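Weekend entry, working from home. Most of the wet-lab plans are on hold until the incubator is repaired, so I used the time to fold the two sequences that have been sitting in the queue since the last round of cloning. Logging both here for the record. First:
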Amino acid sequence: MSKLAFIGGTGVYDPEILTDLHEEIIHTPYGDARIESGKFGAKAIIFLARHGVKHTIPPHKINYRANIYALKMLDVAAVVSTTAVGSMNPSYKPGELVLVDQFIDMTKNRIGTFFDGDRYGVAHYDMSHPYCETLRQAVQQAARAENILLHPHGTYICTEGPRFETAAEIKAYRMWGADVVGMTNVPECQLAREAEICYCTISMVTNFSTGMTDQPLTHAEVVACMKENQSSFRKIITLLATTYDPDTDCSCHHAGQAFGGFHL
């Protein structure tokens, strides 16, 4: 039976809804990944703290390939991730959630594919709609059931980090049509697509981006906002763990069909 996994971003390090937790180190061709396996009722659920359980891994040093490959090794078929973001859209306010549906990649030094001509051949995956629509619909239904405000659309621009963006960069990104900015959703999203795993991300707006207010931005502010509002994540994730079947057939599970599929 396939599994559901949650990837926790900044401020979400503890899989509180799970029982029988135990930590595992998964050895992959791309390095080791640290995950936690647990139960929600009778269901096996996987949790992965993207930055480590003590936030020791900066965005540009996360081993995204090892993380996604490890989830594939553990028969994960669907991933819901959380991300902390700054808002460039005045309608998306701190404390609110955004279910992004597009991204712009501004990273510089990350390996963003399994198909680099080495272990796998060369493949060009369609990313017209990078986030799984089946999973997005399930998240939206969970949010409605819990009366949680969730903006159903948004464009996420991913920067390299670990520094925050300049005011000039934010001005340019707004002109491009980006709504929120973060440092981690790429290449995580595209690697999940290559591995034929359904994937979506719930973004928590922690602040308005640089240059949109007169206040300087701090990491402490981001973490504090996440802690204050993570109950909304917990409610959505709890309902998904109850109702979502990761074996639901979806085009994501056949994304690599033209290239022979993705095989471990």
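Second, folded right after the first finished:
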Amino acid sequence: MKKLFQVTAGILVLAAACKPLKMDAYEKNLEIPGHDWAYDYKPSFEVNIQPEDTASLYDIYVNVRHTDAYPYSNMWLLVGTTYPGDSIPKEQRVELPLADISGKWSGTGTSGIIKHDDIIEHRVPIQHNAIFNKPGTYKFTFEQNMRQNPLPHVMNVGLRISKAGKRP
């Protein structure tokens, strides 16, 4: 009888684990090949929105990780968003400020204090209170849109989406 209870409990735990959960946060970071971001490398991220996720607001961020040798105080991206049922992405050019006017990085260093040859991490908001009107798979694509190609010293780029609250 005890064995039957353990098996039944195990099956219930597995069944619950397979059930889609509401999205509280999504985060994925991808490595830039050779840490030189070329125009033709366009990292993409697929986010599955469940019907219950459409009742919330979300904040969308771009994560950037670079070395202290990155030569600019900002980064321009083309952010493409493909909505469920669409095949053509809607593109928007977005500026990511990475340093203040004095040149001090706005992100955090690996040691907590930024020093020469450090790795700097940024989480830059690109949209607050975003709404996903439709359930399904949303695809986000990032393309570096700077004048320099490839863009040196960029190690990773990523997408973070976190729940901001209930829709009004």
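Plan for Monday: verify the second prediction. The chain has one domain: 23-166.
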